[in-house]
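Q: I'm writing a short explainer about Thioredoxin for a general audience and would like to include a description of its predicted shape. Could you first generate the structure from this sequence?
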Amino acid sequence: MPKKSFQELINSPGMPVLVDFYADWCGPCKAMNPVIEQVASQYNGKLKVVKVNIDNNHSAASQFRVQGVPTFILFSKGQQVWRQSGAMPAQQLTQVIQQYV
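A: Of course. Here's the predicted structure. Afterward I'll give you a sentence or two in plain language.
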């Protein structure tokens, strides 16, 4: 299966896409992994979760001006509708997602 472009990923028809920009060396990113997994399973079939390693995907990180990690960007119909940098509680993340699913 060919690798999809970042643009194809965020234009996912029918469901919002949460992009998690992270780095392997980032402590708060590792702390957010269980939260992201919980959100992904909670909204399975209603939300697509895409993890982007900024060290391997410089173009996507610079395209969205990611300055720090973790940075979370929520896309709906290909448009950025929400963005936050830094770790956050699962409840805060689900409150945002709930508005778009």
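A: For your explainer, you could say: Helices lie at 6-10, 27-42, 58-63, 90-98.
Q: Perfect, that's easy to follow.
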